[in-house]
Write a structure and sequence with these properties.
Blueprint lengths: L1 H4 L9 H26 L1 H28 L4 H24 L3
Helix pairs in contact: 3-4
Length: 100
């Protein structure tokens, strides 16, 4: 199992864990599609880019806190939250350099 390969306890088999894992995956997919739609018509949605960047930065910070509280390994906590946080910073920088 993937969880055990990564050094975690086996993923519990219960309706709640199945529900939470699948809903999180759906949410990530939904956000990805929404961001793609913003990119496809950037002139129209430009006012949303900065709030999305700030939200992504905050999400990365909060994600790190949740991962730490959950007792996830440090490599996982830093890797995941730093990746998201950095993506928000990059998005913010790109928004600034591409302003008309």
């Amino acid at each position: 199992e993937v969880a055990e390969t990564l050094g975690f306890d086996p993923f519990p088999h219960s309706p709640l864990t199945f529900y939470l894992a699948r809903h999180l995956s759906l949410l990530y997919g939904f956000v990805g599609v929404a961001l793609w739609l913003v990119v496809l018509d950037l002139p129209r949605y430009r006012p949303l880019v900065l709030p999305i960047a700030v939200g992504t930065i905050l999400f990365g910070l909060l994600q790190g806190m949740v991962n730490w509280q959950a007792g996830l390994p440090l490599w996982w906590t830093i890797g995941e939250s730093l990746w998201v946080f950095s993506g928000g910073l990059i998005l913010m920088a790109l928004e600034r350099v591409t302003r008309d």
